[in-house]
Design a protein that fits this description.
single chain; 109 residues; alpha/beta; five-stranded mixed beta sheet; 27% strand; globular
Amino acid sequence: MTEWSEHFVQVNDLTIHYHRAGDTAKPAIILLHGVMDNGLCWTPVACDLQADFAVYMLDARGHGRTGGVLENFSYSVLAEDVAAFIEALDLQKPYVFGDTPHGLKPSSF
């Protein structure tokens, strides 16, 4: 396994915590966890993907080390957070994968 890095980014008045693995010169893939979990639930998947992708494992609003509250929690709020994350990191056409039914539906974009 290559070295993983841990980061925070400020978007939508929210501090999002995430782990990144893989080469940032490769296509980006964002892995979104379900309710009551955190980004590291994707560790086994990220290990398999990191050779071919820059893998981003976010802690969603109110989960893990990401701030925010779960009041008015909805797919649209989560989608806005993820869209702002993509813009803040200037990710170009990232793949987005969520573990539905609880994870953010990528179709929300």
